[in-house]
Amino acid sequence: ARPHLLAGENVELTKAAVELCWLTCVSSALNGEELIRSNGIEILGALLVDCMAALPVDVSPAHPGAQVATLCLRTFAGLATFEAGRQKLISRPDLVSEVVRACAFE
């Protein structure tokens, strides 16, 4: 696990890194495809799992961990526009379950 990525000052850097992934992928198909090829879905999936494990169901959307989780979900949505991204996502039922669970947060 990578709880250190969500602790203290690291959470802001993690948030910025995931936001950069999201914006880079949605602005350039080549970048999105490269993130898929370089196991970005697996890495972001592990980060989402860590976020979900650390956050209560009633977490504030302003909480940095919730923002990281939201950015992971946005990145997955962007990557799902690519056939390879969709295939990679559906090949991971554990990740799909985590995405569904994250969508239940208010």
TrEMBL record:
GO biological process, one term: regulation of early endosome to late endosome transport
Positions of transmembrane segments: none
One term under GO cellular component: endosome membrane
Superkingdom of the organism of origin: Eukaryota
Protein name per UniProt: MMS19 nucleotide excision repair protein
PANTHER family: DNAJ HOMOLOG SUBFAMILY C MEMBER 13 (PTHR36983:SF2)
